[in-house]
Every structure is written in C-alpha cells, then in structure tokens.
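TOPIC: backbone geometry
CONTENTS: sequence, structure tokens:
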Amino acid sequence: MEIFKASAMEQFLITYFLQTGIGWAMLGGVCAAAMGAIGSGKGIRIASEQAAGALSEKPEIFGKLLVIIALPGTQGFYAFITLVFIAFRINLVNAGTTPETAVAVSPIIGFALMCVGIGVGCVEWRTAVAQGETSAAAVNLVAKQPDESGRAILLPALVETYALLGLLAGILMTFLLTKPMMFANPALNIVK
C-alpha cells in the first residue's frame, strides 16, 4: 500500500498557507509593494508627459519641475515600507532554525496581514495616479508662471497626505495584528 506523498507544490501550500500564515502575510506585502510601484510609475508618467511639453517650450524651468514630477514616486516607497514592516513583524527577517527565532504567524493573522497589504497597495496605487494628475496641473502652472513653483508644489503635496495616511494605517494594523495577546488569540479562539 502506497502512502500519500504530497508534491513539492502541495507541501509548499500546506506549510506556508495552511499550517502557518507566512504565505498569506508575504503575499499581502508583495501586493502592497507591486501595487505601489505600478501606481508610482503611472503617476510619474502622467506628470512627465505634461512636463515634456512644458520643457519643449521653456527648458529653463526644469529645476522647478523636477520635484513636482518626482512626487508621485513616493507611494512606491511607502508600499515597499509596508512590505518590510510586515516581514519584520512576522519575524521573517530574523527567522532561523531554532524555535526562539522561528516565524510564528497563524493562517488567520497571515490572511489579515494580506488584507492589510492589499489595502495599503490600493491606497498607494490610487494616490500615486491622483498625484500624477495633480502634478501635471502643477506643471502647467509653473510653465505659465515660473515664479509660482513654490505654490504649485503644494497641490500634489496635498495628495501626499493621504498616501502617508495609508502607510500609517498599514503600519498600525500590522503592529496591532501581530501584537501578542491583543487580536491574534481572540481571533484564533473564534475559529477553534
């Protein structure tokens, strides 16, 4: 009689998604980082297209436009910070072979962290695109009135507030979900 042997993929899924929540948590972190990077790329593209037109007529305003064009790129960094924070909070970065340094995250907490990561990723993606659109409008302002570059930078900076809020919410939820005896144990008792 042959004993059931799980394939490598089945064993991977069982280990990282059913026995522990490492897979769920890291999937959320990766989604956050990917969505933030995609949004930042699109936001910078929107602002850069507008800047290219303005610079074709007034190349001397490049220095005044550089920060305005680059602002939508910060969301990619915020999303990456979320990935790193999740990895640190589940002890993935310091994980070793001894029980004291092993990763300890339940599937439920891992799934909750995945939801946090996806939520942060959505916020960062959308605010990056909105900031790119606002930066494009700010480019127009600077192209017509170069002395208004200080005020023009405030327009996309207002959108940045909500990108930061998304990052802070993600960090707070990650911290609360991985804090011993706070939310993890009650959630596990519900499922049992």
